[in-house]
Amino acid sequence: MTDTQTRPPLLAVMPRDARLDFLRGVALVMIFINHVPGTVYENFTSRNFGFSDAAEGFVLISGIAAGLAYSPAIARGITWPSVGRIWHRAWTLYLIHLLTTVLAIAVVAAGVLWLDTAALLKEHNLGPIFTRPFGVQLGIPLLSHQIGYANILPLYAVLLMVTPFALVAALNWPRALIAGAAVLWFLSGHFYIDFPNFPNAGGWFFNPLSWQLLFAIGLATGAALRRGQRLVPDRLWARWATGLFLLVAAVCTLNPTAQAAMGTMLWRLQDAGMPRIFTAFDKTYVSGPRLVHILALAYFLSTLPALKRLAHSGFARPFVLMGRQSLPVFALGIVLAYAAQVIMTAWPSGLALDSVIIAVGLALHLAVAWARAHLRLDRR
User: Fold this and answer.
1) Which one of 33, 75, 171, 224 has the minimum C-beta count within 10 Å?
2) Strand, helix or coil at 152?
3) What is the reported pLDDT for 1?
4) φ, ψ for residue 245, nearest 5 deg
């Protein structure tokens, strides 16, 4: 028998896993807080307790959700309805990216005009919008000029364009898919291969050639879940190993002495010939420590029965609601983050102002999620 023949069929009906929505909602909250730098609240997001941050988790969860949502149709064959549904989603992401970019620029422009916040033009790749307007006007629709915080949707749109074909591999040869994705991840990180920017030099901040590995692992995980299986079996020793790694990562992040020791060790490994992709903390290329950390965190959380109970609790409901409406919530968060930075540039920041900004921003996140669900427009 071939490996494909031994796999059970996809489940026709599968209850929605509240854990995914809960974790995606938590990631959205942390992304918004991280996008309003300088507040006391950013000290409590996940990036302060390990090597990865909410962005890696968001992309991995998005891959799992895509595998769950689209694998049944792809399993019936590569047809225009099955492929078109995924590509339509990618087109929607592209349009929302353009809208959020325009709105974010408008917010910054309003701040410059009326609140004397021109200092913001030196940040987030905003300067070229005003110094090289014609190149930027071409670069924005081509996705070759992306402003800060509004640069993850282009990554997701590109990944969705290849999702139909990646799902075929995820359904039939998941190990081969992950191995191929790992090779591409290594080559892009080792040789610094990236999608080009225009009109500026350099490449995308979220390099699709690197981030595709997390998304591919997510697709394979989602396809396996559709069969009622785990991509990686739950083993007690693996749970302990990943838990220990997460603890060490937290100590190395929080303790300056441990952090220095780890940095010295990684530098010596690189000096001895180990490729930099395995030793650096480069977010663009999702380098080794970041990649291993998010995968260890995902495995550890997926084996905890307590997470399932938490995801179905009353405490989790706001996060689950935001996670189910992740696209409009994320898009709103981008614009709100720029509005928050305009406010914090115009007026001195402090605990009171920080608290109001974060509280109002998250309340608006929740309001949009509730409105979408109430209007029966719920989508993955």
Assistant:
1) 75
2) coil
3) 33
4) -60, -45
